[in-house]
Structure prediction request, 770 residues.
Amino acid sequence: MKVKSCKKLAAVTVIAGSVLFSSACSDSDSASGKKTAGDKNTISITFRDGGGTNKGLTQWLNNDIIPAFKKEHPKANIKLSPISASEGDYFAKVALMLKSDQSAPDIVTEDTFMVNSDASAGYLEPLDNRIESWDEWDQYIDNVKNGVKAQDGKTYGVPFNTDSRGLWYNKEVFKKAGLPVPWEPKSWDDILTAARTIKKKSPDVIPMWMNSGKATGEATSMQTFEMLLYGTEDPLYDENKQKWIVNSPGLEDTYTFIDTIYKEKLGPNLSQVLNGQGGTIAYTQLMPKGKIGIGLDGIWQAGNYRKDGPAPWPEAFDKLGFTAMPTQKGQAPGTTSMSGGWAFSIPKKSDNKDLSWEFIKFVSSKENNLKLLLKENNLSPRKDVSKEKEYLDLPMFKEASEFLKNTHFRPSVDKYPSVSTVIQSTVEDVVTDKLSPKQAVENYKKNVTRVVGKDKVIER
Amino acid sequence: MDAHPVISSSTAVDGGSSSRKKQNRKLWASALFLLPAWLLLLIFFIGPILLTFYFAFTNLSLTGSEAQSTQFVGFSNFLNMFQDPNFRISVMKTVIFLLFSAIIGQQVLGFILALLMKEKNPAFRRVIGIIIIAGWVTPEIVVAFCWVAFLNDSGTLNALLQQVGLKPVAWLFTFPMASVIIANIWHGTAFSMLVFQAALDDVPKSIEEAAVVDGASRFQVLYKIVLPMIKGSVVTNMILVTLQTLGVFTLIYAMTGGGPGTSTQTLPIFMYNQAFVNYQLGYGTAISLILLLIGVLVSVLYLKSMKVKV
Prediction:
């Protein structure tokens, strides 16, 4: 009897528990930041935060934007619903959120390389009609505008920042190794020579740091692989023929350069660099200690060393230089860079598109955009902001803005994110010596063909 | 076990149509009461499995144009999979992980622990038991963090090695598979130990004693008497541990992310990467189907080879 009543009790508990649990699950409104239907005055904004990412953006929204916007629209209620996730997971989560009426926010921040993909999936609202009657769109740099255009030719977002990439170098390490300061490498060989010299003169310094693993995700594709590849004659994608280039001398040379760095031990320990936190550790810990000679990365790394940054370092910009990435053999135009950036988009399933658009226009004004970039240490997508003295006074911004002249954008094709993951795994395989550069090209060819289809690839 | 009294009490009632009616009514009543449970099972268990079957034959994608116009693509996901060297690698890694962490590690270690603790001082049994079970009740993600803290470049193990003058080793990088296997053994052994403890306690002492009197050695007793008597538990445990280990994702993902390279990329990790990193949900689903198939196959194999009914 006793056992039986115990069992009954257990059964009741389980049922009650599951009911409670399921009701807790259905209360997802608060979790997704979604307001009750029909509320025309509330908009929710989804962006990535956590672990120090987008601190500038969060502060800007909370301190500058929301109070000012409420002055203009007293009834408006702005809800922040950030996602704390790694960069790769953020995109997957956003895609899942945008799929459903229940969870779609009213505004979402998208990395421009995902705009095309999410637009093709039907998750985003085209903004062309709205942009037509907005006179400030002319202020946006044309290159950046292309980044938010999808394959169908429509525009799906308003960029709020852009960036450029180059070579960070430690002047003291360079001086000690007898290398010239300021440093202006003219070809890949110049970079290798400098790295070899550093290795010889200061064995405890990592001569060259570049993201090289799957764990660092898009950073490996863009900051390392594409920075190299776009310095050769062969880009990732043939825009005229609209096909992916899956075999080219440029591809093999790119893998060879990466291979050389690790084969000659000019790079960091693999356990350091193949880690998801590798890049953060490199720029917040190793760089300030003078343990890195050269780093191939973006302008935003300067933000680490600000007074309110994660690794304040007042004399950073006396000790560090930021120089343009040369083309492979110094061929015209001599330097290269890659640019990306983030944009505000309106999901198709948003039920408050008009107010969302008002909000996007408001935050994209010259003053508000400038305020964001002063906090964020990224480049502005607006021409007028880029001329402001306050902006140009930011350390290294003059240099970084210069790089925009010869910069490239990732192909705006909806398969790019999948191709990018192929890049990341082949680079890691080369770095860990699982594949030779030649095999890596073959592997790249095979996997990209599988992802995009046989009719969408060419060889050079 | 407790179903018996119910059946016997209803059949014990004097026969005839009235009792059959009663029985019928009872059947209907129980069916009615079971209906919600059945419905729940159908919706939340059978439904997703059927959906998985369907999605595995489509090019369903998380983003990109296929997300909008999902098409039926026949067997192409499976053809791709069998041509994908990464899939073959993942199957190999899964087999290695399964063999060493579940079948050899947890199973054998769990058995040895149970055997050593048999008929020992209860206080001793309790203390040791609690320590081992602590590893089992710890959530997987916490286990992963503990082991990362222990094994990483500046972790506890390396600190200890340096204390005795040895060079630190990047464990998670140099021995990634061994690291996750050890962590999984640490985490899962308690379960096997509990199963074997219960089984060993059921072996009558008199039989063992009789065998010893007849001149059997300790090993012979174990091999010829005890093991055959607990065969059922061995198989059940083997199946449970195998299925459990086939699905291990959190531990590996948090410790190594499936890397470096593909060195710890078991099937669940491969599936996750294809579905949520490469956004190819259809392909990921096809992989999960294969995983399901492997699980079924392995279970049937065990049952057949041991000729036991569960």
